[in-house]
Design goal:
about 900 residues; mainly alpha; Rossmann fold; five-stranded parallel beta sheet; two-stranded antiparallel ribbon
């Protein structure tokens, strides 16, 4: 019987009612030991009418078993695994040891779990009950958190219990929590009504325990003794309960105490294993009868459970070290062959000092955990294995393996701590190179980015002779890191070394990385023609080599080519392919970078709505996966897009956050982007003087970092702003300098902008030739916004030259493009100029697509492009019901009722789904 708890029971009833109506909900019950969390969970199970119950509990000793909690929770649903996307099904099957290891991104199992729960909930509402979630193995906890954050429109209720003050999946998760207080006096009195405790003793007991039910029951025999204590004497609940259990333990026969220590060391072992382990040390499970009578354990048909987790913790801590080691050794000997991972951990717990046998067993367990994507468990196993190794060299190797696993698990601080411990005794060894390489990768993703160059280059030099292909990859990553920081000289140095190493190899992979790195470095250095040629060579390699396109590590790099070339067609299919592969494989770790690159590409074409959704998803996933660099980059890119759209408040907000993050991480390049966003915003709003200040700050930042890529120069915008302010001479000087730089690069995007500058400054007889040249160059690039900017400038010059008919043609084209893209400030400028020619712009209705949220727009685009509900759900890691939920809002906002009308809405808005 559950006493009191009216508020909590009502909260559970509302949660289940909501799920039965088709809306998901999550509730975490948080409280101190003994407060009644499990009792409430039992109550929830009894009152979840009409719902299928899936239940699991965290077990402290199983926190080292990969996906043990998840396997228990999902076991009844596995018959539906063939109804989820194949890559997700293989990832989940591998994680749960039901199929071959898939070695997927750690978030793939989360996506698969969400899909499986959603598929199961199609048959009826689900109640997921997770007890002691703070003791779940981290892989299971991470998976559940991934699913919990995305539950929205499925008939699923998730209830968790978590011990107050313990690390758990709730930390930083922003899930709904309900903190449990003790029972009130009336309920406490009812709980102890049969004990015969005096009212005075009951009052003292209540004050001492705060109404904690377990403490009330555990201390009830000692209630009279409490009267001798000062009335305000504090009694820590967990300590007092543990002391009560230990007193009972001390009163047991010796044989019973020894068997209890064995059970405490095993916790969740089967009765068969416990019986075999007991017999090896001359004991019998029958000796537990006295412990059961003392209320310390409960013997069931399949297992022995402690009355409360605190009982196990107290008894295990009370045992001597030799007693604990003997118990673990007995359990290791008794475990069947299929429980090889558990045996490894028990062998480790039984070891006294270094033990190579136990270390090797744990190393194999860690490797098995890694291929099942249980990276947190693998990190723990590798770390313990290293402590047991007798060889310093092997110890360092295992610590590096632990650090790699921690990195894949997303635990940055643990990764760095393990790398500190793994400082190799031999600085020339492969282990030392591996340590520096991993440190460089951490710095690349999480900062400080400036550290990555020396680490990556140093690691590459150590292994250049033994593994030149990997050395080339390291150097290419160093080039990318220098690009982020804006260190052009270092980019050139690393790129030339990569090219040198690649020239002596037959590896197409090494040649690709070297060519792409060299292209990036040369472009950044202002050697645009040579850089573009090298980048084009890299793109061609990818397009022609199937084995390279299937390379997981190339997903992000495949998208660099079109971004650096700014050409209409070159390599653009590679971007879509890379993103599609990442989504299909549920490779969430790769997505923030890919989405950021894709968004930048979309923002420089006519796909602004798509760019906004890509930036939004990159930021959300980047925050979730701890990729601080990608978050900063996407914030800066989003600010640039919003500047063009004239969304002043959000542009300033995102630019400010990007500038702060870039300063913290040393991201010089993206800091420049954020400054540029503020300049573009002011120019679009007609604030030329304010724009000049930002553009000059951008130019200063580029010079300070030695970034000479003409595509990053704000010169064309400054020329326009100077002319608006009457500073014609400065405009001429800057336009001339920019034209020389654009000619040196020789690429159409920069050349078109240079021709526009010449048109703005040209004499009346020359302006048409300059602008027509600019428009011809624009046709070779995908950036229609720049084309419209040129058309607007052309129309302004023609109007002022009194060529109104020709001016109207250019101004109409500019206005239509700005309106189609969604750039109101620039539409207003074009309309004002059209009005000055004597024509009022004919405006079509504003697209209601602008009213959609980024996620609604993302889903609408996918469905308009022909994806099914399930395909869209799998691509963005939500459930089909969530897709349908958002689609309902899309239909309502657009005033439509079918997929055909949805496709038509996008077609009419000239938004190309992708």
């Amino acid at each position: 019987m559950l006493l009191g708890r009216k508020e909590e029971r009502l909260a559970l009833d509302r949660l289940f009612a909501q799920a039965r109506e088709g809306r998901s909900g999550v509730l975490a019950l948080v409280g101190e030991p003994g407060i009644g969390k499990t009792a409430l969970l039992d109550h929830a199970a009894e009152h979840a009418q009409g719902m299928r119950i899936l239940r699991c509990r965290g077990i402290e000793s199983e926190a080292v078993i990969p996906f043990s909690g998840l396997a228990e929770l999902l076991r009844p649903t596995l018959g539906a695994i063939d109804r989820i996307p194949s890559p997700q099904a293989s990832a989940l099957a591998g994680a749960l040891a039901l199929g071959p290891p898939a070695g997927r991104d750690r978030f793939a199992i989360g996506a698969a779990t969400l899909s499986l729960l959603s598929a199961t909930a199609e048959e009826g509402p689900l109640a997921l009950l997770v007890d002691d979630a703070h003791w779940l193995d981290r892989s299971s906890a991470e998976t559940l958190l991934f699913a919990a954050r995305r539950l929205l429109a499925d008939p699923i209720a998730l209830v968790l219990t978590v011990r107050e003050g313990e690390p758990s999946l709730l930390d930083g998760a922003d899930l709904r929590t309900l903190r449990l207080a003790g029972l009130d006096r009336a309920d406490a009195q009812e709980l102890l009504s049969a004990s015969g405790v005096s009212q005075e003793a009951l009052e003292r007991l209540y004050r001492a325990t705060g109404g904690n039910p377990l403490a009330l029951l555990a201390l009830e025999p000692e209630a009279a003794g409490l009267l001798a204590l000062p009335s305000d004497a504090p009694i820590p609940i967990s300590t007092s309960i543990a002391s009560s259990f230990l007193r009972r333990f001390g009163q047991l026969p010796e044989q019973s105490r020894r068997v209890l220590v064995l059970v405490a060391a095993s916790d969740a072992c089967s009765l068969g294993v416990l019986a075999r382990a007991a017999s090896t040390v001359g004991l019998e499970l029958g000796d537990l009868a006295a412990a059961e009578q003392a209320g310390l354990v409960e013997a069931g048909p399949a297992e022995i459970r402690f009355a409360h987790p605190l009982v196990r913790a107290a008894l295990y801590a009370e045992a001597t070290a030799p007693e604990r080691r003997a118990a673990h050794a007995a359990i290791a000997a008794a475990l069947p062959d299929r429980d090889v991972d558990q045996r490894a951990w028990h062998l480790a717990a039984a070891a006294v000092g270094p033990d190579d046998r136990a270390s090797e067993a744990l190393e194999r367990a860690a490797e098995r955990a890694s291929v099942r994507s249980a990276y947190a468990v693998a990190a723990a196993a590798f770390t313990r294995a290293s402590a047991l190794r007798t060889s310093d060299e092997q110890r360092d190797r295992l610590l590096l393996a632990a650090a790699k696993a921690a990195w894949l698990a997303g635990d940055v601080q643990h990764t760095l701590a393990l790398l500190d411990d793994a400082q190799s005794h031999d600085p020339t060894s492969m282990t030392a190179a591996g340590v520096d390489y991993l440190r460089g990768q951490v710095a690349m993703r999480c900062g400080p980015i400036s550290d990555s160059y020396q680490l990556l280059v140093g690691a590459a030099e150590r292994i250049g002779q033994t593994d030149p292909e990997l050395a080339v990859v390291m150097l290419a990553q160093a080039v990318q890191g220098c690009f982020y920081t804006g260190d052009t000289a270092a980019m050139i140095e690393a790129a030339e070394r990569a090219a040198e190493l690649a020239r002596g190899q037959q590896s197409r992979r090494a040649m690709f990385f070297a060519a792409m790195a060299r292209g990036m470095a040369l472009v950044a250095d202002g050697q645009g023609e040579a850089g573009a040629a090298s980048a084009r060579t890299a793109v061609e390699m990818l397009e022609q080599a199937d084995e390279l396109r299937e390379d997981q590590e190339l997903l992000g790099w495949a998208a660099h080519g079109p971004l650096w070339l700014r050409e209409a067609e070159t390599g653009r299919a590679l971007v879509d392919r890379a993103l599609e592969r990442a989504r299909a494989q549920a490779a969430l770790g790769a997505l923030p970078n890919l989405l950021h690159i894709l968004a930048r590409d979309q923002a420089t074409t006519d796909q602004w709505a798509a760019a906004e959704t890509s930036y939004d998803e990159s930021i959300r996933l980047g925050r979730e996966t701890g990729q601080r660099v990608e978050v900063a980059a996407s914030l800066a890119g989003l600010a640039c897009l919003q500047a063009r759209q004239g969304r002043e408040a959000s542009c300033r907000e995102h630019a400010a956050e990007a500038i702060t993050r870039c300063a913290e991480l040393g991201l010089g390049l993206y800091g420049v982007w954020a400054i540029q966003a503020l300049g573009d915003l002011e120019l679009g709003l007609g604030q030329a003087a304010a724009a000049v200040k930002h553009y000059q700050a951008q130019a200063d930042a580029l010079r300070a970092r030695g970034i000479a890529d003409v595509d990053l120069s704000p010169a064309p915008e400054l020329v326009e702003a100077f002319l608006r302010l009457g500073r014609d001479e400065q405009a001429r000087e800057l336009a001339s300098e920019f034209a020389a730089q654009a000619a040196a690069k020789g690429q159409p995007w920069a050349l078109a902008r240079a021709a526009r500058c010449r048109g703005l400054l040209a004499a009346t007889g020359e302006l048409e030739r300059c602008f027509e040249e600019a428009l011809q160059l624009h046709e070779r690039t995908p950036d229609v916004f720049e084309t419209a900017r040129t058309q607007l400038a052309y129309g302004v010059r023609l109007r002022r030259a009194r060529k109104r008919v020709l001016a109207r043609e250019q101004l109409r084209a500019a206005a239509e493009t700005f309106e189609r893209l969604g750039a109101p400030p620039w539409v207003a400028q074009a309309d004002a100029e059209l009005a000055a020619t004597g024509e009022t712009a004919r405006r079509r209705d504003v697209s209601t697509l602008d009213e959609l949220t980024p996620q609604e727009l993302q889903i609408a685009r996918m469905l308009a492009d022909g994806k099914t509900t399930r395909e869209a759900a799998a691509a963005i890691f939500v459930s089909p019901k969530t897709v349908e939920y958002h689609l309902g809002h899309v239909y309502q906002k657009l005033g439509i009722h079918s997929r055909q009308e949805l496709a038509a809405a996008f077609s009419q808005a000239s938004v190309r789904p992708s």
